[in-house]
Amino acid sequence: MFDKKVTYLYLFTAIIYLASLPFTTYPFQFSVKALPIFLLFLTCFSQLEGRHKIFMSLALLFSMTGDIFLSISSPMSFQYGLGAFLIAHLCYGIYFLTLKSNTNNRQPQYIELVAILGFAGVAAYIILPHTSSLMVPVATYLVVISVMAMIAFYKGLNNQVKLGVCFFLVSDTLLATNLFVTPFSGASYLVMVTYYLAQYYITRGIFAQSLHKAA
């Protein structure tokens, strides 16, 4: 079971990072940013078993790696961060595929799948023309995260996981819009709030999921 103490500690560390954003950049900012995800990683690594432990731990570990790369200034930091998160979404997507469909929701929700596809299409239309030499990796990333989200809905996973993957789509779309299309006020806060909510709800949703059905 997902301990309430983890929720409180996660919320506390996330708020600390959000409160520190006006002071960007500061020494070891990457560690403060990645700390909430590290807490989720420790929770999954210590409490889950089998492939649940492996895939969730890997997804969160690569997410932390992406957080670190996106927080440092180096010539290839964005590309490395993008690659790390792409692997994280591959881990999530493959893991979701291994889970049995929710017995109360075996019929795929085609309207929701089409909605995700439509959202990805609009995001691609708005963002990709502005990505220049990064068009291929950004497009690849968009495909992977969209497929990951569609798998969660297709498999009928619980509403917390579904909410988490939707927050991820929103967070990454906001990040790409701010980075490639046009910077907007409050972007850092909106991106990080939706990102932290995404990781939290996916992780909590997996703990809430009846894992014995996925055996």
UniProtKB/TrEMBL annotation:
It is a multi-pass membrane protein. InterPro entries: TMEM86B-like. Pfam families: YhhN (PF07947). Keywords: Membrane, Transmembrane, Transmembrane helix. The keyword Cell membrane does not apply. The chain crosses the membrane at residues 7-24, 55-72, 78-98, 110-128, 134-154. It is found in: Membrane. Its main location: membrane. Belongs to the TMEM86 family. This is Membrane protein. It comes from Thalassotalea eurytherma.
